[in-house]
Amino acid sequence: MNTTDFPILTLPLKRDDVERLQVGDMVLLSGQITVTIGLPTHQRMLDYLAAGQPLPVDLKDGAFFHLSCFNREGVDGTHEALYMNPSTSTRYNPSMPGLIEGYGLRLVGGKGGLDAASVQAMQRQGCVYLSFLGGGCTLLSQAIRRVVAVHWTDYISQFRLVTLQVEALGPATVAIDAHGNSVYAQLLDQAAQLREQLVEQMQTRRNTSLKD
Amino acid sequence: MAITSEQIRNLTADLYEWSLKKIPEDTKQALASAGGRERSAVGRKTLSMMIKSADAAERNGGLVCSDVGIPVYSIKIGTRVQFDGPVKQAIVDGFALLAARIDPPILKMVTNPLTHERSHQGRDIPIVSFDLIDEADYIDITCSPKAMGTGRWETLETFVYPTLDTIERHVLDTVIRVGSQACPPMVVGVGIGGTFDHAARIAKEAVLRPFGQTNPEPLLAGMEQRLLDAINGLGFGPMGTGGDSTAMAVHINYAGSHGFVPIAVSLNCWINRRTRARIHADGRVERIE
User: Fold this and answer.
1) Residue B223's Cα: distance from chain center in Å?
2) What is the Cα–Cα distance from B25 to A196, expressed in whole angstroms?
3) Contacts of residue A175 in chain B, CB cutoff 8 Å?
4) DSSP notation for B83-104
5) Structure ipTM
């Protein structure tokens, strides 16, 4: 598997660009992405929206990911980002519909997916969810080209709002598309449907082995 | 000869670093063989990325995952061993040493549960359990940093005279509830019986068991195989984006119980952090995995 096997999306993106993507597509990303894994960061972003106050970084048509980033101030006062890696997105479920539509996001992501309310917000907005490789710290970090900005440094490293220039980040898997399809919802439905059948198979095997 | 505080301090620091930068060999092999069986194309590519990621971390001295978790050590002490100096403090110092020196530096993950303040230290951190090995002249230290990806989904529930069917349904339902969120393919460790605390402990030991051993208890050997097949029939797949590889292993331990039977389900994600080393009474340090 070479990274050249995957199409590259270059940020910022138009609605058409993300509407073309389908669940199961694997893509690479180039351009600017903004990342955080702070719950308080999400709340502050919602507060800014409610107050009509612009964020320190413009996220319109951009990418906002649940990637945990180690960043620190270098000797010359600029920031460096040593590595990044996805975190579970579902804990931000309550904030995400507001952020997706409020800031006009085209890409969100992390790992583990988002709930139905976010899927609907993504469909209205024209936005897709990308699943990054958990435990992909070293691989994913190779795509970091430079730190564009680190905002809200009153937070610990991974809670800050970090904007990075990346090149060929990924591959990441389209797990929720802009048409209301979520691989996570599909798999949960499928598992619920298969459950009784799998339990019966275990019962049959158990009864057979206990008779032996 | 006695085992010194310095040996324990250095080894607990090393074990933590090794567990962040290298996945166990059996786990890498399990990912590769899952790739051979996986019917989903996205699943196969994701498994291949996992192996590539683990190799890159090992080669470059990088972290496999940025969530370095909280430090958890399990120490088994041979009863013929003597110590020269404090042991518990040496482990606390070992983690502090690691947090200060590791390159790349690690994020603050130890969280005060009351104030949500983050740091590299906290009450009862590192979390250490002790056990004895009669007559042995060594100590074994296992390090298994625990992070939120799987930690938040582990369960402990008490049943009354559960049937095998009830137990197997419960484990399957726990995995369904986790769904796509805990970086599958996972290791599922189950502890059945004992008391509230003991069930959790034996479930954790089950997670840490190396792959490929047949459970000496025939009832459990069968249950492990049935549950592994059932879990891999659910379809969540690598990283939960679909496929046949949802679990690499199901390991089950049990203990004598009462009519009330606590059942603990413990989980590890695909990187399956687990390192082990032995300090012999003569001072030799042996890295086991």
Assistant:
1) 20
2) 35
3) 241
4) EES-SHHHHHHHHHHHHHH-SS
5) 0.95
